[in-house]
Amino acid sequence: MSVIIDFFIGFFILVGSLFCLIATIGVIRLPDVYTRNHAASKAATLGVMSILLGTFLYFYALEGHFNSRLILGIVFLFMTSPISGHLINRAAYNSGVKLWDKSVRDDLKEYNKKVLEKSSVD
Amino acid sequence: MAFQILLNVVLAFLWMFIKVSYDPISFIKGYIFGLLVIFVFRRYSHSRFYLFRLWSFIKLIFIFIKELILSNIAIVKIVLKPKLDMRPAIFAMDTVLTKDWQITLLSSLITLTPGTLVIDVSEDNKTLFIHAMNIGEIEDEINSIKNSFEKAILEVSS
């Protein structure tokens, strides 16, 4: 029984740190703010989540200690990380950071142009 | 929904008073019997039986976890590929959701699943502008969001 638990704890923590590592590589390798933000705000989310899960399992199974703060940590991570990612990207777009030159399309540009024209007519 | 839960609690207390026992176990028993009563009389209520809504919420969470893991693997593949040949794009998606909290939930879920990130919402709350890391066909991309998240959110709120 404890061997299975050990396996799961090791699995979660290893996978978590692997995802964090890949997120870091992604931040360095990817070409522009938007794609970097994908790697930073999301691969890291799953990574931190699995590390917290592994820690929770460790304390619960081996020490018999139910730590609800680790679960709360996961919940708050899910609440805050999409908002921060969204805000960084929105701020970057509105202050005019260019997309990568191989990007295929940009619907928001046309929309913004339309809104601008409308407000100048009014 | 709030009325049904209140009614359920009242029924649980009723059960406790009838049994003249005030421990948590009899409250839980009363709650379960009350649930049964509300389930039987669900046709006379204006809103849906609230356990159905809870069930669709749990389904939404499972859909989300599945998407989270699948798309994380996709991101890992892109990052570790020796050649950077993804096709990032910003595309517009029309949504049928109308309430503020529904749109907030939808855009949070879209942002949390890797590969897609909401940049902006149009003034009239009808269009989401999504930055996608590696876009295939725009139609497929939109349909996959519509069929998974939007449908599940509609089910929760109906």
From TrEMBL, chain A:
<dbReference type="GO" id="GO:0016020">
    <property type="term" value="C:membrane"/>
</dbReference>
<feature type="transmembrane region" description="Helical">
    <location>
        <begin position="6"/>
        <end position="31"/>
    </location>
</feature>
<dbReference type="InterPro" id="IPR005133">
    <property type="entry name" value="PhaG_MnhG_YufB"/>
</dbReference>
<keyword id="KW-0813">Transport</keyword>
<feature type="transmembrane region" description="Helical">
    <location>
        <begin position="68"/>
        <end position="88"/>
    </location>
</feature>
<protein>
    <submittedName>
        <fullName>Multicomponent Na+:H+ antiporter subunit G</fullName>
    </submittedName>
</protein>
<keyword id="KW-0472">Membrane</keyword>
<dbReference type="GO" id="GO:0015385">
    <property type="term" value="F:sodium:proton antiporter activity"/>
</dbReference>
<feature type="transmembrane region" description="Helical">
    <location>
        <begin position="43"/>
        <end position="62"/>
    </location>
</feature>
<comment type="similarity">
    <text>Belongs to the CPA3 antiporters (TC 2.A.63) subunit G family.</text>
</comment>
<keyword id="KW-1133">Transmembrane helix</keyword>
<keyword id="KW-0050">Antiport</keyword>
<keyword id="KW-0812">Transmembrane</keyword>
<dbReference type="Pfam" id="PF03334">
    <property type="entry name" value="PhaG_MnhG_YufB"/>
</dbReference>
Automatic annotation (TrEMBL), chain B:
<keyword id="KW-1133">Transmembrane helix</keyword>
<keyword id="KW-0472">Membrane</keyword>
<keyword id="KW-1003">Cell membrane</keyword>
<dbReference type="InterPro" id="IPR002758">
    <property type="entry name" value="Cation_antiport_E"/>
</dbReference>
<dbReference type="Pfam" id="PF01899">
    <property type="entry name" value="MNHE"/>
</dbReference>
<dbReference type="GO" id="GO:0015297">
    <property type="term" value="F:antiporter activity"/>
</dbReference>
<feature type="transmembrane region" description="Helical">
    <location>
        <begin position="28"/>
        <end position="45"/>
    </location>
</feature>
<keyword id="KW-0050">Antiport</keyword>
<dbReference type="GO" id="GO:0005886">
    <property type="term" value="C:plasma membrane"/>
</dbReference>
<keyword id="KW-0812">Transmembrane</keyword>
<feature type="transmembrane region" description="Helical">
    <location>
        <begin position="57"/>
        <end position="80"/>
    </location>
</feature>
<comment type="similarity">
    <text>Belongs to the CPA3 antiporters (TC 2.A.63) subunit E family.</text>
</comment>
<dbReference type="GO" id="GO:0008324">
    <property type="term" value="F:monoatomic cation transmembrane transporter activity"/>
</dbReference>
<protein>
    <submittedName>
        <fullName>Multicomponent Na+:H+ antiporter subunit E</fullName>
    </submittedName>
</protein>
<keyword id="KW-0813">Transport</keyword>
